Amino acid sequence: MLKAQFDPVQLAIPFFVLAIILEILLGRLGKAKANYETRDTAMSLSMGLGSTVAGLLFGGVIFATTVWVWNHRIFTIPMTAIWAWVVVFLLEDLTYYWFHRIAHERRFWWASHVNHHTSTHYNLSTALRQTWTGGLAGTWLLWLPLSFLGFPPAMVAIQKGISLVYQFWIHTEAIKRMPRWFEAVFNTPSHHRVHHARNARYLDANYAGILIIWDRMFGTFIPETDEEPCRYGTVKNLGNFNLLHNVFHEWIGIAKDVAGAKSPRDALGYIFGPPGWSPDGSRDTSHTLKAKWRARLDAEKASSAP
Amino acid sequence: MDKALLIQLGGSVVAVVLLVALAAWMGVARATPPLDAASARALLAQEFPDHRPDAVWIAADGAGIIARAGDLALVLWRRGDGYVARDLPWSAVAALKPTHGRLAVRVADARPVFAVNDDAWPPKEFV
């Protein structure tokens, strides 16, 4: 009930390795779209390895807090009931959606999540480019209500693992589209390519973990269009392949901005505002980038009209 | 740290090294041919859609671009099999001095180097 009997992510590691080898081979043989750049791949895989180690540092605190919350639960939900697994699947996925949305739309949490998005490639190794500072960012707190409701910590941990394993295979360009019914309900390579794209039209979209229905419900769904292929990475791509720079650059950016802030309000804006926020609006946020893109589109339409 | 965890970490390090080696050996990076006038313009339009460059200079090895748009220098250089874009004050870029055919530009997180013919900077495109 407390500690999971197995970790889906650990069990899936051999599959991750084999799938990456397969994707590289298919790319080499020209059978699928797959590009791997050596230093980019090294960075992605090193981030994955490092995140496991970083997870150990915070794991104890997270586990102890989760158990404490569960000890003060409202209901006692059995781990053996099928209905409980259905409900935890839906609630965990909804929690993931909001975690992921906050991780993109507020700079403090973006600082931890950004390094998953710094690859200019979109391949299976990108899926393993995981954060080292998630424990510090505290987004794990968002899952505590599930334990407070009464879902055993082991059940929540297993469901989180299942979600992570699911999200591995969608980090690929090798699969163009899944069947329509699947694209309508589930997160897919196509939907998640949009999420990793840096094109203005695709910014801040498709936060789903397993079910894309949350994006459709909360108005953040954007479909991939063939006329504008996704370009990957961040709005301002990193200038180097330094692993530590990738891990800490946004945290350092926040610290510098706060140190130079003229008022507490500005400091709070730098920490909790959207990424790119500045007191004078001189920097771009996703919102301003999209507005500029729409303005360019309108101008093009107006100039091409008879 | 227990033994099983150490074995797992050791195995993961070996797997990472082997996968990176495989990716390097297979050569599946994107093709990055030297930039020409058309590809340089397209890249600038993509990275700086709100700027209209007055003049564009392509590095001698085709691996970078510096363009001028008013008071700004639009700088693009190859990183891996892609490009990184930054804008800098034009005055700072114009004041740089190349040495031995290399023009080093300092940005916050990198120091890209551009190949320059005859150490002539700024080149004729900007004069």
How would you concisely characterize the structure shown here?
The complex is a heterodimer of chains A (306) and B (127). Chain A is mostly helical and 306 residues long. Chain A has helices at residues 8-28, 38-71, 82-105, 107-113, 124-127, 134-137, 144-149, 153-169, 180-185, 189-196, 213-218, 243-259, 264-272, 286-304.
3D architecture notes:
The complex is a heterodimer of chains A (306) and B (127). Chain A has 306 residues and is mostly helical. Helices cover 59% and strands 0% of the residues of chain A. Chain A has helices at residues 8-28, 38-71, 82-105, 107-113, 124-127, 134-137, 144-149, 153-169, 180-185, 189-196, 213-218, 243-259, 264-272, 286-304. Chain B is of the alpha+beta class and 127 residues long. In chain B, a hairpin with an 8-residue loop joins β5 (102-104) and β6 (113-115). The longest helix of chain B has 24 residues, at 3-26.
Overall pLDDT of chain B, averaged?
Answer: 95
- In order across it, which strands form the biggest sheet of chain B? 1-2-3-4
Order of secondary-structure elements of chain B: HHEEEEHEE
Coarse shape of chain A: globular
How many domains of chain B, as an integer?
2
- The count of strands of chain A amounts to 0
Runs of chain B in which pLDDT lies below 50 for 5 or more consecutive residues are: none
Mean pLDDT of chain A: 96
Radius of gyration of chain A from the CA trace? 20 Å
Query: How far do the termini of chain B sit from each other?
Result: 64 Å
> Which word captures the global form of chain B?
elongated
Identify the notable features of this structure and list them briefly.
heterodimer, A: 306 residues, mainly alpha, 0% strand, B: 127 residues, alpha+beta, two-stranded antiparallel ribbon, 3 helices, 6 strands, 25% strand, elongated
